[in-house]
Amino acid sequence: MSPCLIDIQDLYTQFMTDKGIVRAVDGVSFSLQAGETMGIVGESGCGKTVLALSIIHLIPQPPGKIVSGCIIFKGRNLVKFDDAELRDIRGKEISMIFQEPMTALNPVFRIGDQIAEVYRLHQNLSSREALQRAVESLREVGLPAPEKRVLDYPHQLSGGMRQRVMLAMAMACKPALMLADEPTTALDVTIQAQILELMDTLKQQSGMSILLITHDLGVVAEAAQTVGVMYAGTIVEYTSVYDLFREPLHPYTIGLMEAVPRIRPRNGTYRLTAIPGSVPTLTSIPTTCRFQDRCGRAMEICRRQEPQMKEARPLHQVKCWLYN
Question: Which of 30, 34, 128, 250 could crosslink 5 through cysteines, CB 3.0-4.6 Å?
Answer without folding.
Answer: 34
